[in-house]
Amino acid sequence: MFSPKLNPGYARQYREPVSEVCLGCICEASSNCDRSLGCEGGLCGLFKMTHAYWVDANKPTIPLDNPNDEGAYQRCSIDPVCAAETVKNYMGRFAQVR
Fold this sequence. Notes:
Enzyme class: hydrolase
Keywords: Antimicrobial, Bacteriolytic enzyme, Disulfide bond, Glycosidase, Hydrolase
Pfam family, one: Destabilase
EC number: 3.2.1.17
Structural class: mainly alpha
GO biological process, one term: defense response to bacterium
């Protein structure tokens, strides 16, 4: 899982759209980082992401999964690493450069 203990300068160094610390804050605000959450009301996992959000993030998957298989979105959204990758992809795609 992502860890706020990683070097916060990492995101700046590699130009990632969101740092590990930021991911932790988004997780806390979205779900209190409750790993037991599944899908409810169209919102899934630690980041309470929607299917459309996952699609906009280029449909990341857990290892050996196929993004076109039924349930790939749900499996990704409840996996901490895949869910964090989804947020990073989404932020990278829609980042506003100032």
